């Protein structure tokens, strides 16, 4: 698997003025990579991840996934790509409130028309992220850290080749932050490429390549 | 344990189950819509059916009656108000002899009393079997062998005594048949032969039919109450009516077209009213449903954005909303249509009485059509507004929806 991001640019206009939320970003991801991107709020980190996930259409530039140019795919193809090849842990709370934790984790599995009910895989993942005892609970009864773990388990259910993580540690205490980051690192260790964006400088140390985002520009930082 | 797959149907079901109040309001609006559509359709069908049947039952182009009794005659025909009036029997032969008149059939009216001598107060109509063309076709529907002297046939809303007889002026008669419902005065009348009704009139004389002093001046054997005319083909009703008026004194003429004109007008007005109300309810319901779905879909932007992010196609997101709206609409329609059926069928007589118009439920084919029509309109209104809202949302860029939902 290889993901090549070339001159990716996204323009938005605010108050009649056009500005580049992401400006000519270039990046290549291969299996086992754990790349972190640090940047201030508003520097364009989430916008970049959303383009890589095919959720936001770039103004210019390209994202190719194993020779497939993402934005020339049909909605069905790009949705399948997102479902099967990508695990996305979005910023903030993203569990569906009417589903239990287990059902939330199973959601991408059942979208894929895969055989079997996936419950065993899901329960194993919940155990791995340390919230097996909460599988039957509803999100409103979970803490922020527990929800983040559930979202990570959900992102991993279809064994993705690329894991996109947006601000995983925003509102977590030191111990939980460490647990969550270790989890992500272990995903990278098992061959999945990980791209994590954060503004937490401590989180960066878990990754093996670091970038910095500044006003839409993506710069590799020397270690 | 085999777990149910989280397919579109199950997701929709879970969303509705957790939707609480929102789901309740949607179901209520669809139920109200299908209820009013079905009630409106069946009531207006029943009214036009009632009028048609009433026209059919009358069957004569022209009725000749004693002068001054026009209103009373309409009362007998339309609502079965018991009444009697007489003129000389010779009118019938005079009419029968006129050019352009194919048939002239007489009837003799008598009323019974609600006192001890009689089973109930009804209109008793004696039919001239030889010439009759008005009532005989309806009688032969229910009594094949044909009515004989001494036999009584009752209208659909006249109830014989327990032993299957009726008693008028202390004379007991066998009830041999009951007519089908017509939603006219016939339903409250009883029918027998001219001979029998004349015997009854004499019996009434004998026991002193006191509150009707003028009745004793009637020469029972030489009187008639009405002569129904059937015109020969090619003759103009208007010309014959003028001719009858010129040649015969002491009579009034009621033309069936005029008799039903007032009723037709009233019914037309009422049907338009029902139509307008139904349209208004539909518009209101469609507006409320559109607003509720647009609102609901908007409030759930984040939820749909998450589905997209996990790999749901646009089609799948729209399907979830569509499926929810189908479930809501089917459930709401079942409730609304059942309530409508429970209102209309047991109370159709009561509704007809309250409306004061001939009201006759249509046949099962028309009723099924009304059901299907109401169901389709309710389902379509519910689902189209939902899909409209969902498609609009799914067209937006996913990340934008995710942000706005935050
Ligand atoms: N749909 C949009 N329309 C207009 N401006 C947008 C839109 N989406 C993002 N932006 C702007 O683009 C810039 C980058 O936004 P983005 O969400 O990528 O920042 P971020 O680095 O993820 O910030 P944070 O750390 O706070 O999450 C911001 O200035 C934001 O206001
Ligand atoms: Mg962000």
Description:
- The complex is a heterodimer of chains A (223) and B (406).
- Chain A has a six-stranded mixed sheet with strand order 6-7-8-3-9-10, sandwiched between helices. In chain A, strands 2-1-4-5 form a four-stranded antiparallel sheet.
- In chain A, β4 and β5 form a beta hairpin.
- Chain A has 223 residues and is α/β, with parallel strands linked by helices.
- Chain A is built from six helices and ten strands.
- In chain A, α3 runs parallel beside α5 and α5 runs parallel beside α6.
- By secondary structure, chain B is α+β, with helices and mostly antiparallel strands.
- Chain B folds into two domains: 189 residues, no CATH class; 182 residues, no CATH class.
- Helix content of chain B is 56%, strand content 14%.
- In chain B, the strands form two sheets. Chain B has a nine-stranded mixed sheet with strand order 6-7-5-8-4-3-10-1-11, with helices on both faces. In chain B, strands 2-9 form a two-stranded antiparallel sheet.
- In chain B, a hairpin with a 2-residue loop joins β6 and β7.
- Chain B is elongated and about 95 Å long.
- The two termini of chain B are 36 Å apart.
- The model of chain B has no long low-confidence stretch (mean pLDDT 86).
- The interface between A and B is medium-sized, with 36 and 28 residues.
- The complex binds adenosine-5'-triphosphate (ATP) and magnesium ion (MG).
- The site of magnesium ion has 5 residues of chain A, from α1.
Give the structure's gist in a few sentences:
The complex is a heterodimer of chains A (223) and B (406). Chain A is an alpha/beta fold. Chain A has helices spanning 45-52, 75-84, 101-111, 119-128, 144-156, 174-189; strands at residues 3-14, 17-29, 34-39, 60-65, 68-69, 86-89, 162-166, 193-198, 209-214, 217-220.
């Amino acid at each position: 698997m290889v993901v090549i991001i070339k001159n990716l640019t996204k323009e938005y206009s605010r108050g009649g003025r056009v500005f580049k939320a992401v400006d000519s970003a270039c990046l290549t991801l291969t299996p086992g990579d754990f790349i972190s991107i640090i940047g201030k709020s508003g520097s364009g980190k989430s916008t970049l991840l959303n383009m890589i996930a095919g959720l936001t259409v770039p103004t210019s530039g390209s994202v190719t996934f194993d020779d497939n140019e993402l934005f020339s795919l049909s909605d069905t193809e790009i949705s399948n790509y997102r479902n099967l090849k990508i695990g996305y842990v979005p910023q903030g709370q993203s569990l569906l409130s009417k589903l239990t934790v287990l059902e939330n984790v199973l959601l991408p599995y059942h979208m894929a028309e895969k055989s079997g009910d996936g419950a065993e895989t899901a329960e194993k993942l919940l155990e791995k992220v340390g919230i097996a005892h909460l599988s039957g609970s509803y999100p409103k009864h979970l803490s922020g850290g527990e929800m983040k773990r559930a979202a990570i388990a959900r992102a991993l259910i279809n064994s993705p080749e690329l894991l996109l993580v947006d601000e995983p540690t925003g509102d977590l205490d030191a111990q939980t932050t460490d647990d969550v980051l270790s989890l992500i690192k272990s995903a990278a260790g098992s061959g999945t490429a990980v791209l994590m964006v954060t503004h937490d400088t401590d989180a960066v140390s878990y990754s093996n390549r670091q970038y910095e985002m500044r006003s839409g520009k993506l710069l590799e930082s020397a270690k | 344990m085999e777990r149910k797959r989280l397919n579109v149907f199950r997701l929709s079901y879970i969303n509705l189950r957790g939707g609480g109040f929102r789901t309740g309001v949607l179901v209520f609006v669809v139920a109200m819509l299908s209820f009013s559509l079905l009630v409106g359709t069946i009531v207006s069908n029943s009214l036009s059916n009632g009028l048609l049947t009433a026209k059919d039952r009358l069957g004569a182009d022209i009725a000749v009656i004693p002068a001054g009794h026009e209103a009373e005659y309409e009362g007998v025909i339309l609502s079965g108000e018991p009444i009697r009036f007489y003129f000389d029997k010779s009118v019938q032969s005079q009419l029968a002899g006129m050019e352009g008149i194919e048939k002239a059939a007489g009837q003799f009216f008598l009323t019974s009393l609600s006192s001890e001598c009689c089973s109930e107060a009804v209109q008793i109509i004696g039919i001239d079997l030889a010439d009759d063309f008005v009532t005989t076709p309806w009688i032969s529907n229910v009594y094949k062998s044909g009515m004989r002297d001494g036999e009584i046939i009752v209208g659909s809303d006249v109830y014989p005594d327990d032993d299957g007889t009726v008693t008028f002026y202390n004379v007991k008669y066998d009830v041999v048949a009951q007519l089908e419902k017509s939603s006219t005065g016939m339903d409250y009348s009883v029918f027998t032969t001219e001979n029998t009704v004349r015997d009854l009139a004499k019996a009434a004389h004998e026991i002193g039919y006191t509150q009707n002093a003028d009745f004793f001046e009637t020469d029972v054997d030489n009187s008639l109450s009405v002569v129904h005319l059937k015109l020969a083909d090619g003759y103009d009703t208007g010309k014959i009516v003028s001719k009858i008026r010129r040649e015969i004194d002491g009579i009034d003429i009621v033309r069936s077209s005029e008799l039903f004109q007032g009723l037709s007008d009233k019914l037309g007005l009422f049907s338009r009213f029902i139509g307008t109300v139904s349209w208004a309810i539909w518009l209101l319901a469609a507006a409320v449903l559109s607003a509720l779905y647009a609102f609901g879909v908007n409030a759930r932007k984040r939820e749909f954005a998450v589905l997209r992010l996990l790999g749901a196609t646009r089609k799948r997101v729209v399907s979830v909303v569509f499926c929810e709206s189908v479930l809501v609409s089917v459930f709401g329609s079942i409730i609304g249509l059942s309530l409508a059926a429970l209102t209309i069928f047991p109370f159709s007589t009561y509704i007809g009485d309250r409306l004061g118009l001939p009201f006759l439920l249509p046949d099962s084919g028309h009723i099924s059509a009304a059901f299907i029509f109401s169901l389709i309109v309710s389902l379509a209104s519910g689902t189209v507004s939902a899909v409209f809202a969902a498609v609009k949302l799914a067209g937006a860029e996913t990340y934008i929806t995710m942000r706005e939902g935050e």
